Amino acid sequence: MKGHGNMQSHLVAGRNLAGVTENPAAYRVRVWGAEPGDGSSRQMDEWDLDGALSASDAIEWARHTFRDRELELFAVIPRTYGETRPSGPAAFRYVRVYGQDLDQGGESEVVYLHDD
Known about the structure:
Blueprint: E1 2-4, E2 7-9, E3 26-32, E4 44-50, H1 55-65, E5 70-78, E6 92-99
Antiparallel strand pairs: 1-2, 3-4, 3-5, 5-6
């Protein structure tokens, strides 16, 4: 077993990952703004990315597009039957595949704008 920091690894026999059928249909990129001053919150924008061939492809696009910004990349996974809500963000799960949450323990306010 090999370790690095708190991580541990071990060789896995076999090459079959049950349930893995294809890459996610979409990724979400979270782009963090500069470190805020006292009493301010950190700005963050999110972008949906369709058509990436892999997580590596999505990371490359995000790093090229947002050069010096801190990033997070999430695979967008549709919820399985029985989990799905009719529409909106709750119809998907977001799995972080790159980066880290720069607002750990903070509070977020989400505002959805509609052109109804």
